[in-house]
Amino acid sequence: MGELVKKKDVRLPVSEDLQRELEEKFVKVIRGIGDTLNTLVERGELSIYELQEILADLEPSFQLISGKWVLEILYSLLFKGPMGFNRLRELTGASSRSLSTKLKILAQLGYIEREVDKGPPLRTTYKLTEKGRIAALLSLPLLYFIAKNSTERSLRSSFHH
């Protein structure tokens, strides 16, 4: 028990000034969302029960985003742009089978587009849709916050059960 629990030090591979600017923008987004929700509840435009229904409706989206390889795929396409299957597999480390399955799901849900150039040679390119780009961008503040405010021990124990 008496073990010291150290908060995880999250450092982005950017200058300290840019990291501070990003953190300030994340805080503004969080405050804006909080203020908006509070206003809706205070005005009676959104009851706590309606909010619970909305959150329940969002659960499948959370499950999708937290699924293995999904964020790796979205971030690879966000930061590196359109690319083929093999390049995506190299960047993510996913097996061909897993990657193929996730790409099909993401395409069906409208997060990515699959473009086939009949060639020769036959070439398939994947790219983010606007919906996928927004989802990837919106997930960054959440993931950053979770990583920064979690402890080393709690992160490890949560995912290794």
Measured as a percent range, the helix fraction is 55-70%
In CATH, the architecture of the domain at 70-131 is Orthogonal Bundle
Rg for CA atoms: 19 Å
Shape: globular
Tally the beta strands.
Answer: 3
Unreliable residue runs: 1-6
Let me know the average pLDDT.
83
Distance between the termini: 19 Å
Largest sheet: 3 strands, antiparallel
- Helix count equals 7
The proportion of strand residues reads: 5-15%
* CATH T-level fold name of the domain at 70-131: Arc Repressor Mutant, subunit A
CATH class of the domain at 70-131: Mainly Alpha
Strand neighbour order, sheet with most strands: 1-3-2
CATH superfamily of the domain at 70-131: Winged helix-like DNA-binding domain superfamily/Winged helix DNA-binding domain
SS-based class:
mainly alpha
Order of helix and strand elements from N to C terminus: HHHEHHEEHH
What does it look like?
The chain has seven helices and three strands; from the N terminus they run αααβααββαα. By secondary structure, the protein is mainly alpha-helical. The protein has a domain of 62 residues: Winged helix-like DNA-binding domain superfamily/Winged helix DNA-binding domain (Arc Repressor Mutant, subunit A). Strands 1-3-2 form a three-stranded antiparallel sheet. α3 crosses α6. The two termini are 19 Å apart. The N terminus is likely disordered.
